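Discussion board: Methods & Data

I've been asked by a reviewer to show the raw model output for two of the constructs in my manuscript, not just the figures. I'm not sure how much to include, so I'm pasting the format here to get opinions. Each protein appears as its amino acid sequence followed by a line of discrete structure tokens. Is this the kind of thing reviewers expect to see in a supplement, or should I convert it first? Here is construct A:
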Amino acid sequence: MIPKRILLKETFFYTVSKTVPGFAGLASVILFMRIIGAEQYGQYSFLLSQWYLIVAIGFGWLNHAQLRYYSKDNTFDDYKAGQIRAFTYSGLISMIIFSVLSLFQPHSIQLWGISIISIISIGGFNYIKTFFQAKLEPKKVIWLTLGQSILALSIPLGLFFLFQKNSFSILMGVGLSFLLMTIIFGLKKKVVKHFITDVSKQTKTGKIRIKKWFFYGGPLSIWFAAGLAFPFLDRFFINLYLPGETLGVYAGIQELLTRIFSITIFPLTLALHPRIMNLWNESKKQEAIQTIKWGVGIMIGFVTILLFIMWMFENVIFDIIHLAIPQMSNQHKTLIIPLLSAGFLWQFSFLTHKMLELKEKTHIMVVFLIISLFINMVGNSIYIPHLGVQATANTAFGSALVYCILTGIYSMIAMTKSKN
């Protein structure tokens, strides 16, 4: 079993790496909402969520495969060449997907170009971050995410006040923040050494290895993209049935609550994931399972305390959120608990589906997520016209709960069999 002090130490580093970006994200939600208004903020949030969705599809398979196999594959001579090829494929996939989507929602050439550059930049940023995470170097993750979060707040504000005062300036600024950090860290000696290699070294076994990464990470990429599709679909249905200001208010509340978990729970997930994978790769399966159980216990304890605080200080918390989002009214108060619970359950699912990842049954994860996605789409399309935005919040909670239950049942059965 990994000493708890090591896990807690790495969790602390990842907490630092998420704290400043988390608070910068909170500040950006508040500032952007105030300076461009709820309606334009909804448009900005809609396109940004589309960028993240495309990155998840195009680059997610490579990042997940790197976390799963880095400790086993990085010693091969053609590993770096394979990574370059895989990253190139990811970039091409992402460009094609966005170009196809643009046929159905026409963009200006300027917005199309900014979007392509931003999508590739976000993909590169996530790749470098995953590389440091796989190497168990949380301190480098801190500097990478710290720089991006500061730039993602300062550059958009600068462009907004110096040039166009609309959501386009905010989007371009966020895209530039990812591009600059990718370039800065890409120029560092160790990262350049990791990328610059003789691609001609690619061997037959290297091609087989890329296929292995794709068939493992492909379903995970679909899973991650489907996970990001939930907030995207929420915004899509609200935009379809309800006023633009309602979309902005809902997006603001959801993102504020999501930032809370990115600061508090996600660092634990970041610390646990590579450790669990390394233990499993080293055939220390019972130690990996015990680490998963330890993480589950920590998360359950945390959410119990959080829900108690929410119950005791519900009005105070509502007043704080209202200060951040002035357009929020009393009728939106009931959105807080289901959205908060949904946010926690998706974080919790990173542990409930861990046995599926370890046993390389990632296609089952996709099946479970498609079931949840179906619940989300049906719930929104049927109930929004009657219940309004409350239907979206309740559906978000229900779909997250179903996924956690399905993956949790599988994991408990798998753990029991592994023990026997």
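Construct B, same format:
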Amino acid sequence: MNHRMNGLAALIFMAFFSCGGKGADNDGKVNVTGKLENTPNGVVVLSQFTESRPIVLDTLDVDGQGNFSYDVDVTSPTFFELNLYGQKSIRLALYHEDVEVSYDFSNPESLAIEGSNDSQQMLKIEQLMQDYQAKVNSLNEAYSEAMSKNDTETIKQIQTQAMDLESNQASEVKNVINGMGDSFASLAAIGLLNPKNEFQFMDSLVTKLDERYPDTKSIIQIKQQLEEMRALSMGQVAPEIELPNPAGELVKLSSLRGKYVMIDFWAAWCKPCREENPNVVRLYDKYKDQGFEVFGVSLDRTKDAWVKAIEEDGLTWTQVSDLEYFNSAAAELYQIDAIPATYLIDPDGKIIGKDLRGPSLESKLEEIFE
């Protein structure tokens, strides 16, 4: 699989750390206080996140009882980090309200944040991320074990569990965000969502945040990126693709109008794509007489490799390519940064599904045709 960072993902990553905009209606100072117990040796460092990198603001003075207090300039919604002796990092979202942090190094569950509501919301996001990562790690271990044993049945089960986990995670993230009200900490949770599948939710959230925090640079940037993605959101007519087939004849995506069409971005060199091909062949044979078509768009570099893979995998549906790798006109139009990638469109050419493969593709086609 080939990965390239999605522009929106990169922007959201930066937005997690920085919000620049008009000043808040306060004196421009936020007081950060803390109470630490059973502290190790070292120092407490406060950093501010910017669009490019974290900047260390100061090393905080901690008294003999583990108390500290520090005033930081905050004139717009801003993310900070407290690094406690190199052993514990705490992200803070600061704007109008002072914040108080307490932590006992003998008890990893003891972290408490009072004051800043935005920083309290950050705790929910951190816990959500930790829980999700633990589940992903568990699935990865099971997958590696199944692969080592060549246990295809278990591998399929784990793939289904992974898709269910991603879907459930999206629901949990949205529930957490909905519970945050208009807190700008929700910017930190946006990056946990897949913009391909959650465009409408993210669009609505960013619009609300823009009204609450006008002229905030990172929110404006995310709005611009979402606007670029709007043409690929669910319910929109899929952009036209016109590329040559192996015989050199130009073929349009719109020539398949009237059928359910899966646009399949793949390549001969892409192992996950080749592994998925037998599943697509099986489903194509099952539903092609009911109005299902596949429009294969190869991101190969050479015609020989492309044609050989078509023959080896028995792909009998429409295939096109300009042999330009990720610089393909279609890949850029559809903002493809990794393959396999798919779009499912209805007979009117409207997008009704994204990144469907394996069990998720089979389930969707059953829903449509059965």
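Answer (T.O., handling editor elsewhere):
This is acceptable in a supplement if you add a one-line summary per construct. For B, something like: The mean pLDDT is 88.
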